[in-house]
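Narrative of accomplishments. A recurring question from our advisory board has been how the design workflow behaves on a single, concrete structure rather than in aggregate. To address it, we present the structure tokens for one chain from the evaluation set, followed by the sequence designed for it. No filtering or post-editing was applied between the two.
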């Protein structure tokens, strides 16, 4: 392959930003997207100047078209596509909200899928696609049924997508973080608890390894899946959860 290049959606904070930093250190040319203007501005200030930071809404196909055009103009092709854009809207049957439901699926399922479709012409033969799913797609988390369903829908596509992409030796895999100390996790916990910090401490105490994941924990696994060390890995889900969900 030629020079390594990566597009990371949802890459202006948390796991996406940590992945951008580790890939850049490994010699990748990197582009990231973010939706919120303040997150985009912060990423432009904190990431190296050579990282391309783009504002885009994963729900918007027009925005996705523009991202693909901008990345194509800058890089020519992609060797890694990290589909990390996502939202979480905690709700139960009693607190169900139709607009929030539609928003979750628009980003986590439709947005991810269409980004892959539209970026496909840029992907080099032998490229790697990684999708953020999360352990909630296959584990019970209170108030998480809608978010879990949106991620689970994409997870169900991965084995078939792996076979469709295999003739070009393009690999696609999922990484499923457990609870990770990110701005999104803190925001989600604030909707469920008046004290997000206390809730995070309680979650850490329940984890078999005694802590929450850091964004760097997840980024390391993504970097592995992007690398030649994972050249024979496709159609898989890797849980990075510190053992959460193993107990019966």
């Amino acid at each position: 392959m030629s020079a390594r290049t990566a597009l990371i959606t949802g890459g202006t904070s948390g796991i996406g930003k940590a992945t951008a930093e580790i890939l850049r250190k490994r010699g990748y040319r990197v582009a990231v997207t973010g939706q919120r203007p303040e997150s985009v501005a912060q990423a432009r200030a904190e990431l190296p100047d050579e990282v391309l930071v783009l504002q885009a809404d994963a729900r918007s196909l027009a925005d996705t078209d523009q991202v693909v055009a901008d990345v194509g103009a800058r890089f020519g092709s992609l060797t890694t596509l990290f589909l990390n854009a996502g939202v979480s809207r905690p709700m139960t049957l009693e607190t169900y909200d139709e607009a929030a439901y539609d928003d979750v699926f628009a980003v986590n399922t439709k947005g991810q899928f269409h980004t892959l479709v539209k970026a496909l012409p840029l992907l080099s033969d032998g490229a790697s696609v990684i999708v953020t799913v999360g352990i909630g797609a296959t584990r019970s988390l209170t108030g998480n049924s809608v978010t879990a369903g949106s991620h689970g829908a994409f997870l169900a596509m991965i084995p078939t997508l792996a076979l469709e992409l295999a003739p070009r030796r393009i690999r696609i895999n999922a990484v499923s973080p457990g609870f990770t100390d990110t701005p999104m996790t803190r925001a989600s916990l604030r909707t469920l608890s008046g004290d997000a910090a206390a809730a995070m401490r309680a979650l850490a105490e329940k984890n078999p390894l005694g802590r929450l994941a850091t964004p760097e924990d997840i980024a390391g696994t993504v970097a592995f899946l992007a690398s030649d060390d994972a050249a024979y890995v496709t159609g898989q889900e890797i849980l990075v959860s510190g053992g959460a969900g193993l107990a019966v």
